[in-house]
Design a protein that fits this description.
Layout lengths: L1 H24 L11 H7 L2 H23 L2 H4 L6 H13 L5 H21 L13 H20 L3 H39 L2 H23 L2 H23 L10 H19 L2 H4 L3 H9 L1
Helix pairs in contact: 1-3, 1-5, 3-8, 6-11, 7-8, 8-9, 8-10, 10-11
Length: 292
Amino acid sequence: MISVLFAVLTALSNGAASVLQRRAASTAPDSEAMRLSLIGHLLRQKVWLAGIGLVIVAAVCQAVALATGPIAVVQPIFVIELPATLLMASFVMRVRLPRPVWFGVAAVTLGLALGMASAAPGGGSATVHGAAWVPALILTGLFEAALIGGALATRGNPRAALLGLAAACAYALTAALMKDAMARLDNGGVAALFTSWQLYATAVAGVGALFLLQNALQAGTLVAVQPCLTLGDALISILYGVTLFGEDLRTGWWLFPELLALGLIAAGCVELARSPLASGNATAPARTRRVD
C-alpha cells in the first residue's frame, strides 16, 4: 500500500509538471530544438521552474514507491497522471470539464484497473544480479539512438512522438536504476547508496529524460507526446522489471484483456491531451463550453 500511495503522489506531481513544462516549452523558437540553449530559454520561464519543482517532489515520491514495491506495479500507475491533473486543474480553476474529457478519464482509469488485474505483476528481487545491466544498457542506448535519429529526420508531431517515446524510455531506465540504487540503502546503508554507480547513473538518465521531454514538447502537440510518453514509460518499465528484476506477469489468454487495457489507456490519453486544460490554455475554451 505504501508503494501504491507514493506512486499515486508521483503521478499527481508528474502530471502537473508535464502541463507546466508544455506551456513553457511551446514558447521556445524552433531554432533551439535539440540544443542546450533550449534549457537556457526555459530557465527564464517561471512556469517551467514551477514544473521542475514538481519534478523534484515526484522524484522523491518515486524513490519511496520503488523502494517498497515492484517496478511493474509502481510505474504503470503513472498513467493516471494526466487525468488526475486535469481534474485538479478544473477544480482549482472552477472550469467544468466537457464530456469527452470525462470519457478520457474513465478510459484511462478503467484501462489501468483492467491491466493491473489482468497482468497481476509481482514477485522479483529488489536488486539486479550479476552483469545483467550490461546488455540492458547497450540495448537501451541503441533504441534511444534509433528514436533520436528518426526524430531528427522529421518535424512536427512525428518528431514529438519519437522524442516522447525516447523520453519514456529514459524515464523507465531512470526508474530501474533508482530501484536498484535504493536497494543498496537497505543492504549497506547510506555509504552503500552513495558509492553505487546506479545512483549517479539515475541522475544522468533523469537529466537526459528531462532534456528529451522538453524537446518533444517543443516539437509538437501534447496529443502527439502524451500517449507515447505514458504508454512507453509503463511498458518499458514492465520490461525492465521482468528482465532485470525477475518480476512476474500473467501471460496466455490474459494477454487479450491486457491488450484491451492498453487500447483504453491510449484512447483516453489522446482524448485528454486534446483538452485545453492539458495544453495550458484552459480558460477561454472551457468557459465557452460552460456557457453552452
